[in-house]
Amino acid sequence: MTRNFFVGGNWKMNGSLSQVNSLVEILNNASVPSNTEVVVAPPAIYIDRVRQAVKKEIEVAAQNCYYKASGAFTGEISPEQLKDMGINWVIIGHSERREIFGESDDFVGAKTAYALSAGLGVIACIGEKLEERESGKTEEVCFRQLKAIASHVKDWTHVVVAYEPVWAIGTGKVATPEQAQETHAALRKWLAENVSKEAANNTRILYGGSVNGKNAAELGKKEDIDGFLVGGASLKPEFADIIAASSQ
Ligand SMILES: O=C(CO)COP(=O)(O)O
Q1: Looking at ligand 1, which atom is closest to the CA of residue 95?
Q2: Assembly and interactions (predicted)?
Q3: Ligand 1 neighbourhood includes 209 CB (under 6 angstroms)
């Protein structure tokens, strides 16, 4: 298997300048296994500071972007502007963007395609809500979200999928390794049947939702879990443990 492990840290709308500086110090002291890619996503206002201060093995992402190069889009940042500032990754379609800011499946797909065309790698997020899981709709919801991305995106080389069950985000209720593996395997099968065998084999599928320094190693051992997208624990020293856990 050639998929390198991928550990993303999504800082969300957290941190102050002094906390950002402390996090950079933690990152610069963390040892990054050679088979692991680490990408952190600070709030937009701190992106450039982090990019300049963090060691080269660690990449920096935006938490969102728009799907035009420039223009009258108050408050938005374009993929071209991210590239201009040396940023190579963006998170798109996080459940908080979908839920709080009303981003539709199709909008997420269109933004993913545009960001890829501008040369960014995309961490594309999908995942079901609690009531959807409880009514047996986990796969239906995730496949619908994937299909919306696939209808815009033909080349998945620079796409990383983050499966983040909404009920596990920020709740401390982590999916069991078996639950996560089951969904990851279904997602990979969907990619094989609906995109290509190559996309299924090569696309990293991350798990996100209450990952921490203690549960990362067990989750990471599962065949179809290729890394993590970490929220709360990416703001703490234990993020270094999660990076290290990935190589076990
Ligand atoms: O939303 C997440 C990462 O994008 C996960 O957040 P937590 O790790 O805080 O549950």
Answers
A1: 1
A2: Homodimer.
A3: yes
